[in-house]
Each structure stands twice: as structure tokens, then as C-alpha cells.
Design goal:
Elements (H helix, E strand, L loop, with lengths): L1 E3 L5 H11 L5 H7 L7 E6 L15 E7 L2 E8 L2 E8 L4 E3 L4 E5 L2 E5 L3 H5 L1 H16 L6
Antiparallel strand pairs: 1-5, 2-3, 2-8, 3-4, 4-5, 6-7, 7-8
Length: about 140
């Protein structure tokens, strides 16, 4: 689900909190050594993402925020800010020439450069949180 979060909206905040949980407290953020990524360059997106990104030659950036039950991906188009809300049960990560996040029939592929490498610890934290979330459910495959 993609929301326009340029301005604070109580309904949007409640929806985000219901889907991926409330933001971590300051104590939890310190304990986890941060819950946000540095901005990363978006290399490719799925066709249904194109209307939300800058169409000219500008570079598109995104930031990731970890939540207790999911992930928020924030990106800008001009002065508008959009947030892609991904609960852990929808999330799929792939590491091929950078990193690719897939969910809900959409994907974002991040460029493999210095900023991506600086976020290595964030992706490790993200994978650990997703595995902890999946352990709650007994999947007998």
C-alpha cells in the first residue's frame, strides 16, 4: 500500500500503525543501534511504481524504516513524499547486483554503490527481524 505522507494525517498514521506497528521508542532505537537506513539510489522499479517517482533525469532516492511488524519505504516526487507500507508477511528480499525488495506485486531495486554498502548492517537487522517475525508461526513445509 502506498500513501501520500507529505503532510501528517491522523488517518494515515493510524493505518500505518495498524499494519506495521507503532514506531520504536527512543530506548528501543538506541538498543537496536538505529532503525533507519541511509538514503539509497533507486535503480529500477515495477511499472506500477512509475507514477510515484520523478520521470525526468533526476536520481530517485529512498529511505527505509524498520517497524516492529514491517517496513516503511519513503521516497519523493518533487515536493511530495510517498510511503510504501510493507508488513513482514508480504516482504521478500533479493540480493542481485544491489538489493531488491518485493511485496504486493511491486518491487524496488536499489543500486549497488557506496550508500548501499553502508546500509549492510541495516539489511542484516531487517532480515533478523523478519526471521523473528516468521518464527511466531509454525510453518511445516
Amino acid at each position: 500500500m502506498i500513501l501520500d505522507t507529505s503532510y501528517t494525517n491522523k488517518a494515515n498514521n493510524e493505518l500505518i500503525n495498524d499494519l506495521v506497528g507503532r514506531p520504536y521508542s527512543i530506548f528501543e532505537k538506541l538498543k537496536l543501534r538505529g532503525v533507519g537506513s541511509k538514503r539509497m539510489i533507486i535503480e529500477r522499479v515495477s511499472p506500477n511504481f512509475k507514477p510515484f517517482l520523478n520521470s525526468n533525469s533526476n536520481i530517485n532516492y529512498a529511505n527505509l524504516e524498520l517497524r516492529p511488524k514491517g517496513l516503511l519505504i519513503r521516497f519523493n516526487k518533487g515536493l511530495q513524499t510517498f510511503t510504501w507500507i510493507i508488513p513482514f508477511y508480504h516482504l521478500a528480499l533479493f540480493k542481485i547486483n544491489g538489493s531488491s525488495i518485493h511485496a504486493q506485486g511491486k518491487f524496488i531495486h536499489f543500486k549497488n554503490n557506496i550508500t548501499f554498502k553502508e546500509n549492510k548492517n541495516f539489511f542484516k537487522k531487517l532480515i533478523d527481524r523478519k526471521l523473528q517475525f516468521d518464527k511466531q508461526y509454525n510453518f511445516n513445509l
